[in-house]
């Protein structure tokens, strides 16, 4: 079914909204209904060439601005986005299928904070000098040049703004390539840039898929750095094509994170906190806790309360204020996640709740699935170690800290995790032994933007966030001035 009002969005290059000359388009679909509601250019290497050229032309004068002038630009962007908070939230909810409450509280709010936070970070930068007896070493943080910013479909504007703000704040110009599944709020952001008069060519955007637009962008000789967030296998391709020209590279990839519940936890907050970690955004967040490890002595009680909590979660119309779970991003992704339900049965799993499609009234054409809790698969089974990226969690019990740590560390990923315990010292010391980039104790997704964000092993390379972003999006230079 094609909705009458098809929104046609365009590439944004050198300050102009333009179609791809070949006129190829890709359809944009509502995950909740399966209906097409927009179309975007299916760009290719020639569109990428024009965008990179525009970025190269703009970079010198943008990089020559004072850091405070660029901070002022980030502030203006934050103000303009804030004025459109509700429009951002409803468009993001429509494009991704996520509940409007989540699109408001996380996606729209964080996108504004990302620009405001980095404006403040830039203003607080002091001149770093290392003094010697007879010389001064001045640190100069110079722009890297032109960057490729490639983002996924789960948190479209949140992640795009997280990259654009520090990248242009440090004097670079960029070419963005949002996911072909969720291009809408990236287009809205370009319209904000255009309205406030951001100098042309500082931020450019090409729509399209990975092969047609993403890959030529990463390998383009005019691109100096790549900041990528997406799947681990794609991250490997991006790294391979960036390596020959030594492009600076930041990869934020997949995760298979553990939520570890000790017997001395506050049971109620652990049940609700672990459920939020497992099912936020329909489990489509790289930080989601999809493997739940519970100390044996409280396993039965936790399981019973957790399943009851999950069964009461409201699945349905994303535009409804009370909805807690919306639709999955695509039919293909829904089939992938349902495939893991079948695999879990083969791996000895027992479905405690969920495990099937559902179809809220009026949304029969969407990609819907019940939140699913499975026990009985081994901690080293495929279901318990591969990233599923959907509303499916597995329960496991453990008898000792050593056993819990062994299970938590036995995946190819190492992104995040959460630990629930009444003993904060134990929580911290246990967390430090986990092979991940981030752990929350008695919380989850409680974010200080100054903290390093990223993972180890197959979860990525590098960190973004706070000074780690400023460091990645700049080249540190040392000028040593010797005195007589
Ligand atoms: O990521 P992809 P998707 C994981 C999760 C999900 C899987 C795929 O497992 O199922 O990744 O999700 C562009 N060169 N995460 O499809 O395919 C692509 O067009 C350059 C975890 O979103 O990696 C899109 O813009 N670019 C992740 C972006 O890369 C290429 C969040 C991501 O696409 C490319 C989302 C190529 N060869 C998914 N191929 C997290 N860690 O947050 C594709 N792209």
Task: Please tell me about this protein's structure.
The protein is of the alpha/beta class. The chain contains 15 helices and 23 strands. It has helices at residues 45-64, 67-83, 85-96, 100-123, 156-169, 184-196, 210-219, 232-242, 267-279, 296-311, 331-346, 382-385, 401-408, 424-432, 466-472; strands at residues 2-8, 11-13, 16-18, 25-29, 36-41, 129-131, 135-143, 146-150, 173-177, 203-205, 225-229, 248-252, 257-261, 289-295, 350-353, 372-375, 392-398, 413-414, 417-420, 440-441, 456-457, 460-461, 474-482. Strands 15-16-17-14-13-19-20 form a seven-stranded mixed sheet, with helices on both faces. The longest helix has 24 residues, at 100-123. The mean pLDDT is 97. The site of ligand TXE has 26 residues, from helix 7 and helix 8.
Please write out the topology:
Elements: E1 2-8, E2 11-13, E3 16-18, E4 25-29, E5 36-41, H1 45-64, H2 67-83, H3 85-96, H4 100-123, E6 129-131, E7 135-143, E8 146-150, H5 156-169, E9 173-177, H6 184-196, E10 203-205, H7 210-219, E11 225-229, H8 232-242, E12 248-252, E13 257-261, H9 267-279, E14 289-295, H10 296-311, H11 331-346, E15 350-353, E16 372-375, H12 382-385, E17 392-398, H13 401-408, E18 413-414, E19 417-420, H14 424-432, E20 440-441, E21 456-457, E22 460-461, H15 466-472, E23 474-482
Parallel strand pairs: 1-5, 8-9, 8-11, 9-10, 11-12, 13-14, 13-19, 14-17, 16-17, 19-20
Antiparallel strand pairs: 2-3, 4-5, 6-7, 7-23, 12-22, 15-16, 18-21
Helix pairs in contact: 1-7, 2-4, 2-6, 3-4, 4-5, 9-10
The protein binds ligand TXE.
